Amino acid sequence: MSMNVIIGIAACVVVFIVVYIKMTIDEKKGENSIEKQKINAIVKNIVPDGETCTVCYGTREDFSIGGGGRMITTTTEYSYYGIGFRPGELYLVPLAFEGDEISYFEPKCFSKENLRKVEVKNGRIILQDADENTLTLFVTASNTKDDKYHPVNIQQQEETEAFFEFAHKLMDEINT
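Given the sequence above, the corresponding structure tokens read:
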């Protein structure tokens, strides 16, 4: 084995170890992170009877393809939500991140009165309202600060399981 191959393998091992350590630290920080606490407080305070909601964090990615001629461009826009849910009601609170500050906007309630269709699959819920507007929302158990598009360290295994149990019940209620 040449020296270059050995150095290459050693470099890959070091990079793997550094990445693994960073992921482990981020996951540990996310178990009861400041971001998780702030989002819980926001949802519980802004949603009507918010104290009765289970809270989790979710994201939306809007992917678009554009351009003309020989030029093709792709754009991905990220949206972030504090999610409050209880039987029959789903509240989405849009969030914005600026450094360590989290700001929020008016929540939107989804229920039997304004939903036309709900689909749950592969870690996401797809909501279609009465006007046939569609919103796809991702809720994952592990969220780490990977880059500027993933701004939080939040671990939410129990909340994610509760959310998808709720989402399946909502889907059954709306689609039947």
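Strands lie at 54-68, 71-86, 89-98, 101-104, 108-111, 115-121, 124-129, 134-138, 142-143, 154-155. Try to locate this feature in the token string yourself.
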